[in-house]
Amino acid sequence: MSSPQTLHIRPPFRAEHIGSFFRPATLYQKRELFEKKECSREELRKYEDEAIKEIVQLQKKAGVKTITDGEMRRGLFFEGIFDKIQGMKALMRPVHEYKEYIPHVRVMYANGVKSGPSFFCDGKLKRTVGFYTEDFKYLKSLVEPEEVKHLKVTMGAPNWIHQRHGCDQTYDLSVYKNDEEYFTDLGIAYREEVAELYALGCRHIQIDNPTFCYFCDETMIAGMKKAGLDPEAQLDAYIHAMNLCTQGRPVDLTMGVHMCRGNYRGMHYAEGGYDRIAVKLFNDLDVDTFYLEYDTERAGDFAALKHLPPTKSAVLGLMTTKNANLETVEELKTRITQAVDAMCSGEIKRTREEALNQLCISTQCGFASAWQGNPITEEDQLKKLQRLVETAQQVWKE
Ligand SMILES: [Zn+2]
Q: Which residues form the Cobalamin-independent methionine synthase MetE C-terminal/archaeal domain (predicted)?
């Protein structure tokens, strides 16, 4: 299944981040008005443009090489695909059309939510406009030509709507007979997007897919089984859906997957180490790098890293974005050493130097996966990025 690969480093760079940033107060206020339909999209865009200029400067000031637009134009991290692709209809869906075993859906049920905004595929899926290409062009206009290769685009995962609504309520069965047909067309759309971003100069794409970590959560596994589903078959289907998006990419394009257990205003939804999914994911998923949440015990220990193939890199999300606590350089270094220990403890033979070369460090998730942001300040996020850069310089001497 996997393409022949070589280890991709730079990007990812030694000190990374997951892409979303705290919205400045001016944008935050405008977004509040926009959500209440008291501000137009065009009016909001002016504030987004300014916020993106600011966040580019903040990333440069912090010394990170990777630059994103901070997801300033998005309300939620996965926006940009299902709201733009032809064949998807946006609508409020009653809660019974959401799968209760999905960790963040459990919260909807627990809170007595009656319905939520989502999508239904009622026609053949076709990419008729770029998902993130216009955003990329704007970001590109803000940096020097030699910095374009440092820009990172984050995008939602192909299985995001499917995990909520399942194979029975994601698409019209007269349009697609099964998941394979649905994900095949979605894969074509993603590959068109990837090709266009590449042509514009993009060399670093991160697909955000918290769903994979949901498969680390025993409560979800039990819930799926109770619903008559085979969790392993579902995980395989989502790996396949991702591979349809990344296959055939140019060798000098780094494509990775970010996985975490949820990140909404400082909250998480799932728990459990990577051991349940590591062998399958590290080997079968056709990506160059894994951006792995690792800030607390909810992600388990580093043991699963012993399965990481030598051709793939892992970005350890050691620094939390869920609160203002600032990890020390020594704490971060200790954890990197523990990760190297784990990588050298398995059947894959590698030196400590080779293991270290497969690693980078980052924040565990974004600072604002939703526009409201996590309970931290703009100063906190700058300090956290600077701390990652400082640590990376000491460890890798690059
Ligand atoms: Zn995340």
A: 17-89, 180-371
Give the distance (Å) from ligand 1 centre to CA of residue 19: 10
- In 3D, which of 318, 317, 312, 316 has the Cα closest to residue 350? 312
Ligand 1 centroid–CA 291 distance in Å is: 9
Number of domains in the chain: 1
Distance 240 CA to ligand 1 centre (A): 21
Distances (CA, A) of 74 to 83, 213, 230: 11, 23, 33
Residue 19, domain member (yes or no):
yes
**Contact criterion met (CB below 8 Å) for 287 and 312:** yes
Is 0.85 surpassed by the pTM of this model?
yes
176 Cα to the center of ligand 1, angstroms: 30
Rounded Cα distance between 348 and 68, Å, is 34
- Ligand 1 centroid – CA 349 distance (Å): 30
CATH number of the domain bearing residue 236: 3.20.20.210
What separation in Å is there between the alpha carbon of 36 and the centre of ligand 1? 27
CA of 292 to the centre of ligand 1 (A): 8
What does the pLDDT profile of the chain (398 residues) look like in tens digits? 444 478 988 999 999 999 999 999 999 999 999 999 999 999 999 999 999 999 999 999 999 999 999 999 999 999 999 999 999 999 999 999 999 999 889 888 989 999 999 999 999 999 999 999 999 999 999 999 999 999 999 999 999 999 999 999 999 999 999 999 999 999 999 999 999 999 999 999 999 999 999 999 999 999 999 999 999 999 999 999 999 999 999 999 999 999 998 888 888 888 889 999 999 999 999 999 999 999 888 888 999 999 999 999 999 999 999 999 999 999 999 999 999 999 999 999 999 999 999 999 999 999 999 998 898 999 999 999 999 999 999 999 98
Find the domain containing 42 and state its range: 15-393
Residue 251 included in any domain: yes
Distance in Å, CA 271 to ligand 1 centroid? 13
**For residue 95, is it within any domain?**
yes
Burial of 263 (0-12, 13-18, 19+ CB in 10 A): buried
Q: Is residue 53 part of a domain?
A: yes
